[in-house]
Amino acid sequence: MSVELVIVALLVLLVAGLAGALVGLRVGRRCPDSDVVERQAAAVHHDVGERLEMALDATGAAVWDADLVAGACWWSDTFPRMLGYQDIPEMPPDFWEVRLHPEDRERVLAHIASHLSGETTSYVYEYRMRHENGGWLWISAKGRAMHDADGRPVRYAGIMTDITEARRQEERLRASEERLLKIMETAPIALNVTTRDGRWLFCNAQSVRLMGRPRTDLMKTWVPDLYADPADRLALIARYDREGAFRDAEIRFRKPDGSIVWALSSWSMIDFDGESALLTWLYDITDRKAAESELIRAREEAEQALAELREAQESLIQAETMASLGQLVAGVAHEINTPIGIGLTAASHIGEQADRLRARFADGQLRKSDFVEFLSELAESARLLMANIDRAASLVQSFKQVAVDQSSGDRRVFELGGYIAEVLFSLRPRLKRTRLTVYVDCAEGLMLDSYPGAFGQVLTNLVINALVHAYGDGAVGVIRITAQPEGADRVRIDFMDDGAGIAPEHLPKVFEPFFTTKRGQGGSGLGLHIVFNTVTGPLGGAVSVQSWPGQGTRFTLKLPCVAPAAAPVVETETASS
């Protein structure tokens, strides 16, 4: 028996006992032991009252007793406290009725009237009452009326409990269930809930598309009939019983037109509306299976080409590994063309002057002034030749160093300012197509024992991210890179631009993978994710971002001068986020 029913029973017993005692006194009924009887009745009444009070205190409930003949009503002290009163207020007979919610009033009063007329043996109903603070409480009321010998209601009593929090929980649960169903319905892959015996409980829009049937028809179809081979479903059930949840089963389904649909199936068990059910996710892999079949057919028809195909695959893998260096290599020819051209011109000039000097010597017309002039031009040409050959060699060495660092991921000691210059030099072909100026302010002699390739990848991604997101085509702007020691064992690097900035709602997401505001416009959503992983991973540091929309963005890197002694994992993609 519930606590509420116990309280109601105690209340009815208490009221009945009081009524009997009052009737006995009213008619003047006496007996030889009337004093003893009255004392016993008082004791019983006191005992029942104590139990009732204990029950009310324990449950936070309230009880009432309405005398319909006298038009009076009594409430327990817990009732006004339930309504927010600190002290017990005056409680006239309409104390309860005037606090009913306007939308509930007619329904509740009709329910009570129906019970008092004898249409029901007890009543249970829920309604809202005004709280002292102006809000509304949800009340659950349970009770029973007492009738006289003629069947007329003379008294009724019951219990009220505050169920406001329970109703809120129910509303939150309902909203949560609605959200879950909406998520399930709009999921990008097919989601089904079925029973073991093959009945449908739920399917989403992707299931309808995958199976090629209207939802009403699909929900009426016995699940095994959808399989190209019904025995496959029995095998999957057996696998689930044996292994539990799984997610890698490739299954064939047959559409109404006879075509086959391949799906990657994941199975688990859930409770759906109180019923144990199978939850299956189906990802359409028909295109992939068709491609696999085509590959198999091609292999069977051209077995001889298999070795060439494998060789081509290895070449593609190697080419993809070096893809991040493509832009670096593309700028080599242009950058070293000028010094090599000047050197070639100087060498050609030396050759022409030497031939002219040789001819004059052979004709006996060589003069001292001619020889002196030749030596002077030879010295100048040699100077030009050496200067431009040195320039070309420096360019090649710079490109080579950056390329080796980014492809190998080796650790070494390097000077930070010089390496920043080398990385920016490798990006000159990309920067030349813009109207941006890059300033570098790095403390002299700042040495790092770290992974230059990883650091170069971070700097490259930050530059490309700024080009794609901070500045529009033809925009004029300034990028500033500063590097200063921070304490004895760390360095702080600030990368700042004066571009468009980042919207406040996007700022917390910039390091998340695949988040980009330039989808289809050069942004993959991986550039800043790689920056975050590389800085916090092999470089052992931290990265943060600040932005002011319309004014610019600042990325702050804090790196240890000596990187952690762990094998670096350097990502080679340079896509911007």
UniProtKB/TrEMBL annotation:
Pfam families: HATPase_c, PAS_3, PAS_9. It is an enzyme of class 2 (transferase). It catalyses: ATP + protein L-histidine = ADP + protein N-phospho-L-histidine. Residues 331-563 form the Histidine kinase domain. The keyword Coiled coil applies. Its EC number is 2.7.13.3. Residues 48-119, 176-219 form the PAS domain. Residues 123-175, 247-297 form the PAC domain. It comes from the Bacteria. CDD domains: HisKA, PAS. Residues 288-322 form a coiled coil. GO terms for molecular function: phosphorelay sensor kinase activity. Keywords: Coiled coil, Kinase, Phosphoprotein, Transferase. PANTHER family: PAC DOMAIN-CONTAINING PROTEIN, PHYTOCHROME-LIKE PROTEIN CPH1. This is histidine kinase. It comes from Azospirillum cavernae.
